[in-house]
Amino acid sequence: MLQLREEKKKKKVLPYFRRVSRGGAGRGPGWGGRCRSRPPAVIAPRRRGRAGPGMAEGAAGPGGAERYFTRWYKPDVKGRPCEDFCVLQHSNRICVITLAEAHPLLQSGKTIKNINYQISANCSRLQNKVSGKSKRGAQFLTELAPLCRISSSDGEEYTIYSCIRGRLIEVNENILSNPALLQEKPSTEGYIAVVLPKFEESKSITQGLLTQKEYEEVLLKRRSSAS
């Protein structure tokens, strides 16, 4: 009798363990039971002094963000030369908006003077309030929706755009107090915002964006024309 009870316990525990190891009990498909599969800024909200969503410091190389995110690029946004942006797309649809490496703000000699998430008199990205699994209250963004405006010490002002459609999950308030993060760690702690595309649009949001290889070809053409 005791042996029969032990066998029943094993039958009950084993399926539960498999559910946890595959996706976590009650989390639903795609959430993942391992740390590397956790959706950024959803399971682990951003805290001050912490690296960007789902990414560790120095995560640009092998074993870092590249393992969990696919890079997409939007060059020359609104016809402004070299104002390029990068969209780091996670497998769970979460997208992190960052500056691309060729953006003027990341070039030598540029010093960031001010970052402003107040995009109009009636709209501030800092007032974005998100609640619940359905992300109620989140501001909806189009591809050319401005996220913030950044001014440099040489008098230039740059508008940062979403580049994709979706709901604004969070903005990076850390760069307000420490603008240097944007230049020193643009793909991690210096990210701009986190956007969640609609489920039905998740497979089409990269239309109009370039792969990393295609973007490298754009950079080569720029260098050739400049020389």
List low-confidence stretches: 8-51, 54-64
Distance between the termini: 85 Å
Percent strand: 15-25%
Record field, number of beta strands: 11
CATH superfamily of the largest domain: RNA polymerase II/Efflux pump adaptor protein, barrel-sandwich hybrid domain
Quickly give the CATH architecture of the largest domain.
Beta Barrel
**Overall number of structural domains:** 2
Structural class: alpha+beta
Can you tell me the overall shape?
globular
- Please, what is the oligomeric state? single chain
Mean pLDDT: 78
How much helical structure, as a percent, in the residues?
10-25%
**Major sheet: order of its strands?**
1-2-3-11-10-7
Order of helices and strands: HEEEEEEEEEEHHEH
- Describe the main β-sheet briefly: 6 strands, antiparallel
Rounded to an integer in angstroms, the radius of gyration calculated over CA atoms is 21 Å
CATH topological fold name of the largest domain = OB fold (Dihydrolipoamide Acetyltransferase, E2P)
